[in-house]
Amino acid sequence: MFTAAAGLALAVTTLVPAGAASAEQAHSADVTLYVSPVTGRDGNPGTKARPFKTLEGARDHVRSISRKARGDIDVVLADGTYPLTRTFTLTSADSGRNGHRTTYRAAPGAHPVISGGTQVRGWALSDPARNIYKAHVGDIDTRQLYVDGELETRARDRDNPPGFSKTATGYAIIDQSLQHLKNQQYIEVDSRWGWMHYRCPVQSITATAMTMQQQCWHNANLHEGQEIQTPSWLENAYEFLDTPGEWYLDKTTGDLYYMPKPGQDLATATVTVPRVQDLVDLNGDIDDPVRNIGFEGITFSYATWLEPSGPDGMVEGQAGFRITGTDNPNFDSTRLKWVKTPGAVNVTYGHDVEFTDNTFTHLGAVGLNLNTGTQGTLINGNVFKEIAGTGLQVGGTDVIDAHPDDPRSITKDNTVTNNVVTNVADQYGGSLGIFAGYTDHTVISHNKIYDLPYSGISLGWGWGLTDKGGDTNYPGNSGVPIWDTPTTAKNNVITDNRIYDIMKRQADGGAIYTLSSNPNSVVSGNYISGVPSPAYGAIYHDEGSRYFHTTRNAFCDVAFQWMLMNHGLNIDAEYNFTTQPQYSTQFNTLDSTVADNTTVDGCQQLPASIVDNAGLEPQYRHLDPDQPSGDRSAPSAPSKPSVVTAFPTVADLSWAASTDDTGVTGYSVYRDGKLVSASKNPQTRVTGLTAGQKYTFTVTARDAAGNESRKSRAITVTMPAGTDLALHKPVTVSSYSEPNVPDLAVDGDLSTRWAQGLGLPDPSWIQVDLGAQHDISGVITTFEKQSGYKYRLEASTDQSRWVTIDDHTAASTTTSADYTSLTQPIAGRYVRLTVTGSNWNGGSIYELQVYGTPLPSGADTQAPVLSGKPTANVLLPGTLDLSWPGATDDAGIAGYTVTQDGKQIALTGQATLRVSGLAPATPYTFSVIARDAAGNESAPILLTLTTPADDDLALHKPVTVSSYSEPNVPSLAVDGDLSTRWAQGLGLPDPSWIQVDLGQATSVKSIVTTFELTNGYKYRLEYSVDGTAWSTFDDHTAVATTERVNTAFAPAPVQARYVRLTVTGSNWNGGSIYELQVYGSF
């Protein structure tokens, strides 16, 4: 495609290939041809003694003999560099014939390099003061320069330069020196944020403005909310050449400048620029594919790509696909015409092509690219490294890829295995390790993928818009036509990959990222670690992802969450193992199940069977060896486990601990031969079982090195009978939001859920009627989120008196499924779950399951006896402590029901209750009823009283303060109005104080402080008789408040005329008090 300038020598490099297979030993061919760039000549017959010189010479000879060949043809490449000045193209005329193959392979021990690079010589010192050298290269254009095989940096300014603000045509600037930069039309703005990496060329610069070339600038501002931002840096000006290792090409003079690094000698160094874009193209067509061709043991190196230097720049839609052209009125108009980045090696309508043991490196775009209609390709045992864009791409994203008119255009049955993908996307940071678009049965397995700026593997395309029926989440399907047929994407497999150290520069991605419908697709056995918080999920099922089975993956050192489903549908995520329990489902994720996943304490508890199996298979680990462990001794096998079955669907296993020379770090549990759980300690809970079914369990142990023991002796258990009493029973709720209606919480389907009304605050509740009285022995609650709920479970025989089954209101949940197993059954017909705190998510329950047995005949019918009457200790005008004599019962007291004016206010097991929120000077009647475990209830005992008047000693009294800010003056803190407040002077630091003069020394028993904020204050209350000597009433300076209203009670009344509140810490809000109230005894 591109012609090298005359007089420049072609680059010779010494890259280590992925693996040079022996042609004679690894494969026996019927015809063997030889090529040598050093000793060969294209007029030779291609024998070992008289080889061809060039790839073209060998190819042309193969064409002349292939139709008559009765076996495979091997083209054996000797050591050395095979320089290209244009693309080496293979077509159907070069296909292996009659079921035989044509393979271009390295000679035994050879490391042949197919190179599109040109070596630059003739360096002379140009600027001695700055140690800048110059070489004249004529009409060469390049975006990369390599010195001794190392990519150097195109001259760039500092990171995040200040003083830029966006305008309609570019940027307003304050750095007037920028106007003096030369060749401004070749300067680029590099801007990266989120998942986007933009590169746009400058048009011109004045003292106050930088005008951008508008084709790129227009397209870079189409995506609302993801537009190009201010520069991450400026690039490609001679004036930026200030750091060793930087270079600059002056295209107006044809001069190349370079500032050497310490130790580099340009007189002896090999300086290379790439000149050819497509090194190798295999071009078939729909009627005549190119087929049965292989490449083995070859290095593909020094390819260029100059499109980002043009007026389109590099405007990413996503994953390195570009928005180009001028006919783009809005972002939606571009969706079906994003441009795929080309590869150094490209296959179009290729069948049964193989790439094995090759190296793809020093490439300016994508490494290997499989285009439309590529079928049956094997990509195995290769190394992809130091590539500007994505490592390898499988399939396309055009309409012909998603909805082809002819099935021969489907990209299918391609296999990507045992490859190393590292340090790719190093110049276009929104690109990927491995990309697969609309494909059928792509297998991506046993690859080692690491050190990437963005996502590791991306599968799928279209955001659901091109799926059958489109995506109803987007009005008008975002302008994309709605098809009535599914896309070609299905049956895809991502298994057993080792992925780590990804998302190092971009955000909103993951180790494995998916889009759109992919029926019968699997994500399994992958070991993922080193995932920072910019990754929204280690596995990220993004918009429209559907029909994935995500199972038995392992996650270590994941900062944010192990999985995110965003607009996901029909996804099952089960039996995964993670050190990070957090995951989330959001934005209309429906009909998806997240269940039976295991959280372990540390990476060394993750199942060794996943960790050891992920990544390169043993015969390929020489491609990128890990640091070997000196420990090869496995732990002893665990003892035969024992099993307890508290629920018909849950088994609790325990076993004697294993031993190991360096220590056992964890255990793996297998059910009927399949991995289902893991733990640090010798016990675990296995869920998702079926009542009455027989299961066999075994256990293995592992150590820190990943050595796994033999399996324990097996134990077989038959789960007890029993059914979910709540299944399909009537449900009432506090509220709900469509389509998450109440019945979905008792439908037996863990992919559907009830959710409270949108935007409503906590608490919320759901109540199920079991239809008859039962002895309730256990409840399983499966929440939407992995963690963050506070809740209370209650049972009732009559819906008016409730018994607490489990109180989880003090601490949030840490798992999605919570199990409450009762040592003593509780009688009830109704079960209620109240979500008291949801971490802003709202009550949302996948399933509420209740277990127990009908009440037996002859059950306890004797009611408790409760005598005497309640008493009240009034603490404040609106607060009192209620107490009563303990009840008696033949079977024991289960608890007490307390009502206030006929409305239940509490269920308690204690004979005392603090009641607050009462109105001053108001009569109330309280009743207490005792009940036993069978639901029998005593006669009520009653107390009627009138609360005292609100005699606030501080009301309207004189106040002094440290400072104040209008209109929040001091007197507003003692005006009896909880809607007004005092606030300290604006911008003043802590501490601040407010002091009230009660007028005379008086007895003080309690002080109530109502702060502006609900939390975050540290403070101290003091009192004094004379305003000089102060005593502490309450010290809250160690721990910040967690509620707006804080009450302090003195053990005994104190004498005080002055009360002072000092705010020692305000969490940057400043002292701010709605009301300071002081009370004596009642």
TrEMBL record:
Q: Which Pfam families match?
A: Beta_helix, F5_F8_type_C, fn3, GH141_M
Q: Where is the Fibronectin type-III domain?
A: 637-722
* Alphabetical list of Gene3D superfamilies matching this protein: Galactose-binding domain-like, Immunoglobulins, Single-stranded right-handed beta-helix, Pectin lyase-like
GO biological process terms, semicolon-separated: polysaccharide catabolic process
What start and end residues bound the annotated signal peptide?
A: 1-20
Which InterPro entries does the UniProt entry name for this protein?
Answer: Beta_helix, FA58C, FN3_dom, FN3_sf, Galactose-bd-like_sf, GH141_ins, Ig-like_fold, PbH1
Query: Region Disordered: start and end of each range?
Result: 618-643
Keyword vocabulary terms for this entry: Carbohydrate metabolism, Glycosidase, Hydrolase, Polysaccharide degradation, Signal
Name the UniProt record assigns to this protein = Carbohydrate-binding protein
Q: Which organism is it from?
A: Planotetraspora kaengkrachanensis
